[in-house]
TrEMBL record:
Keyword Transcription regulation applies: yes
Keywords tagged on the record: Activator, Nucleus, Transcription, Transcription regulation
UniProt protein name: Mediator of RNA polymerase II transcription subunit 24
Originating gene: MED24
Family under the similarity heading: Belongs to the Mediator complex subunit 24 family.
GO term, biological process aspect, one: positive regulation of transcription initiation by RNA polymerase II
Localization per record: Nucleus
Record's GO cellular component terms: mediator complex
One Pfam assignment: Med24_N
């Protein structure tokens, strides 16, 4: 077929139902090279044919979308063509045009001569005028619909128009293009007034005066509407339009280099989520970033310290604060010692570290905030620790301490009454580190020779925040796995009791209970992999490892309440049920605690069935739960572990009694006839149960009040806002991170949750889409740096999906 004109070519494509890419190929055959598609008005011709009927022609619209995506037509020609459509009563056609604008309005650009760039500005001005007219027409229809009693007629279209208007105007770049169009219009009028030129062929029909008139008309119509959300949205758009003429008068904040966000994020990620990790992988990762971005060593070390202080300041009170303190004052100096071996240069590494501290001392607000948070001179502790590790000379330490002391004289201080009884965490952590070594030596001794002495040591560990201090110090120095192994051996030692007296039996019960609770706490705080031993063929797996792997609820781990691990020998279950129901308190002598822990789930099921069938009254249930938690808290932990798995399998109307039993087990027993260190053990038990029950309580919309420890035991749990699509959450959080220029601890946890919820492909794909929205080089480079640091959450999987060139961009 010999095509005469563009219209015939489009109609031929429609009649023969060509696909979009077939259409593009044939169009290039029909029309030889020479005139561009914009000169032929391809976009206008396609829109004219697509909008003939009451609804748009989807096939011809697909041709236009393909032409836009393949850059056959310029954005300016499409915007100009859209602005010529004026039948706003056809809702479907208007919606299709708005959708087309959505394709590119957030990334407007053009290639070619300066005249074409000016043409884009004029086209955007025409499109803005069209959007305002469309919005005013929709508002008028809504007002008429309200008077006629059919408000839905125009409300949907008005909301769509306002949304596109807001999206277009929210871009500073788009407002700048509109400002250029306004200046061009003023310049043209001036030249005409001076007789220096005529009208231009491509001059838009819209002018800034027409924009102002349309805005005024829209305001008058919306004033009569009662919908506050739509009125507020329109007012925001009006404010943005009115701000365009004054853009040059307003100082625009430039994008400054705020440091090295990749280094910052890698350190923050390690301190927040991987305190127990070995130092060597962290050192290698940091060195790779240093080489990729050509970071000078003093600035590199400075960025590490900045990240540490930021993490320390923003860490939630409690365990997370102690973990960050241990990371900053114990682990990072060890990391710098290993970095010293890699940094071979003209200057000595100690001089680079000293130079980094000189830079750090200039960040007075950051150091003051850290000192105020920790109630001490953090820089002093850090300098002393670096001096011990050979990273600084004595002269440098003395000089730097003197400078910081002078600055601290002008720093804001807490009132003496507020900080008199607060012991600084950095000092406590540094003292806890040698204590960990001493405890490990104590645990190596024969437990059977002096169990009372060992119990005294463990009891001291339970007081206050001693346990969390010791665990944080052990984690930061790589001793936590050894620490956990010693307590597993102790727990295994206490599972059997031969001929023993009542006192020895109570000591053994306490050693079993404290070691069990400590191990549960370690698993929940630092991950169950810290507990697991190296697999060796033929070796017997300790009781606690077996129980933790099969019976302990963890995040992302769904347990089967009918699993064989919950159903031991029936005779042992019957004897345990009888003991709990008939005795006034739990017996201790020759009690096999590991068997009791494994039998408690089946015993609880029998008791629960008896209660539901009316065989047992609530008073009997109270007596049984008091027996369970009265002597050893570990039985209550095992019972709740099974109840959590059991509740997940029940219907909505079947959960009441199981949840009530969890509530009974969670509270402390107010009795004088309890074993030693009961209150301290209950605090740890409550924290363990709160972690275990968090998911199931949220799913069942149940509230259980656990004994308060004064701090939030789960600060990073349930961070996602309810009833919001996860893609929206990902987009919003990345936009905030990009605006700040660095990733904070809370954002890291949200990204980690989204990664596990959406999967690696979804996560990487949507973040790369956010990166591709950037149009300025400096913003794109910052986004790449931040994306690299976010992908460190799972670099192994991300590297398979994202091209290697991206991951190693400088």
């Amino acid at each position: 077929m010999k095509v005469v004109n563009l219209k015939q070519a489009i109609l031929q494509a429609w009649k023969e139902r060509w696909s979009d890419y077939q259409w593009a190929i044939n169009m290039k055959k029909f029309f030889p090279k020479g005139a561009t598609w914009d000169i032929l008005n391809l976009a206008e011709a396609l829109l004219e044919q697509a909008m003939i009927g009451p609804s748009p022609n989807p096939l011809i619209l697909s041709y236009l979308k393909y032409a836009i995506s393949s850059q056959m037509v310029s954005y300016s020609s499409v915007l100009t063509a859209i602005s010529k459509f004026d039948d706003f009563s056809r809702d479907l056609c208007v919606q299709a045009l708005l959708d087309i604008m959505d394709m590119f309005c957030d990334r407007l650009s053009c290639h070619g001569k300066a005249e074409e760039c000016i043409g884009l500005c004029r086209a955007l001005l025409s499109a803005l005028h069209w959007l305002l007219r469309c919005t005013a027409a929709s508002a008028e229809r809504l007002r008429e619909g309200l008077e006629a009693g059919t408000p839905a007629a125009g409300e949907k279209q008005l909301a769509m128009c306002l949304l596109r208007l807001e999206k277009t105007l929210s871009s500073t770049k788009n407002r700048a293009l509109l400002h250029i169009a306004k200046l061009e219009e003023a310049s043209l009028h001036t030249s005409q007034g001076l007789g220096q030129g005529g009208t231009r062929a491509n001059q838009p029909t819209a002018s800034w005066t027409a924009i102002e008139h349309s805005l005024l008309k829209l305001g008058e119509i919306l004033a009569s509407l009662s919908n506050p959300q739509l009125r507020s949205q329109a007012e925001q758009c009006g404010t943005l339009i009115r701000s365009i003429p004054t853009m040059l008068a307003v100082h625009s904040e430039q994008l400054h280099k705020t440091g090295y966000p990749t280094v910052h994020a890698v350190v923050l990620l390690e301190g927040t989520m991987n305190l127990t990790g070995e130092t060597q992988p962290l050192v290698e990762q940091l060195m790779m970033v240093k080489r990729m971005q050509h970071i000078p060593t003093p600035l590199f070390v400075l960025e590490i310290w900045k990240a540490c202080f930021v993490g320390l300041i923003e860490s939630p009170e409690g365990t997370e604060e102690l973990k960050w303190t241990a990371f900053t004052f114990l682990k990072i100096p060890q990391v710098l010692v290993k970095l010293k071996k890699y940094c071979h240069g003209d200057k000595d590494f100690t001089e680079d570290v000293s130079c980094a501290f000189e830079f750090l001392l200039k960040l007075t607000p950051l150091l003051d905030k850290a000192d105020q948070r920790c109630n001490c001179d953090c820089t002093k502790f850090l300098l002393q620790e670096c001096s011990k590790q050979g990273l600084l000379s004595e002269a440098s330490v003395t000089n730097l301490m003197a400078k910081r002391a002078a600055d601290r004289e002008h720093a804001p201080q807490l009132k003496s009454g507020e900080n008199a009884n607060i012991q600084p965490n950095p000092g406590l952590i540094l003292r806890a580190e040698p204590t960990v070594t001493n405890i490990l030596k104590t645990m190596d001794a024969d437990h059977s020779k002096s169990p009372e002495g060992l119990l005294g040591v463990l009891g001291h560990m339970l007081s206050g925040k001693s346990l969390d201090l010791l665990l944080a110090a052990a984690a930061a120095t790589g001793k936590l796995k050894s620490f956990a192994r010693k307590f597993i051996n102790l727990n295994e030692f206490t599972t059997h009791g031969n001929e023993e007296l009542a006192k020895a039996a109570s000591v053994r019960a306490l050693l079993f209970d404290i070691s069990f609770l400590m191990l549960c706490h370690v698993a929940q705080t630092y991950g169950s992999e810290v507990i697991l031993s190296e697999s060796s063929t033929g070796a017997q797996v300790p009781f606690f490892e077996t129980w933790m792997q099969t019976c302990m609820p963890e995040e992302g781990k769904i347990l089967n309440p009918d699993h064989p691990c919950f159903w031991p020998d029936s005779t042992k279950v019957e004897s345990l049920v009888a003991l709990l129901n008939n005795s006034s308190e739990m017996k201790l002598v020759q009690m096999k605690w590991h068997e009791a822990c494994l039998s408690i789930s089946a015993a609880i099921l029998e008791i629960l069935n008896a209660w539901e069938n009316g065989v047992l009254a609530f008073e009997s249930i109270q007596k049984i739960t008091d027996n369970i938690k009265g002597k050893v808290c570990s039985l209550a932990v095992c019972a709740v572990a099974w109840l959590v798995a059991h509740v997940r399998m029940l219907g909505l109307d079947e959960r009441e009694k199981s949840l009530q039993m969890i509530r009974q087990l969670a509270g402390p027993l107010y009795s004088e006839n309890t074993l030693q260190f009961y209150n301290e053990r209950v605090v740890i038990m409550s924290s363990i149960l709160e972690h275990m029950c968090a998911d199931v309580l949220q799913q069942t919309a149940t509230q259980i009040k656990f004994p308060s420890t004064g701090v939030d035991t789960m600060p990073y749990w349930n961070l996602l806002p309810p009833k919001r699509p996860i893609k929206e959450v990902l987009t919003d959080i990345f936009a905030k991170v990009l605006e700040k220029g660095w990733v904070d601890s809370r954002s890291i946890h949200i990204f980690d949750t989204l990664l596990h919820m959406g999967g690696v492909y979804w996560f990487c794909n949507n973040l790369i889409k956010e990166l591709l929205k950037e149009t300025r080089k400096e913003h794109t480079l910052r986004a790449v740096e931040l994306l690299y640091s976010i992908f460190c959450l799972d670099m192994q999987q991300a590297s398979r999906l994202v091209c290697p060139e991206f991951l190693f961009l400088p």
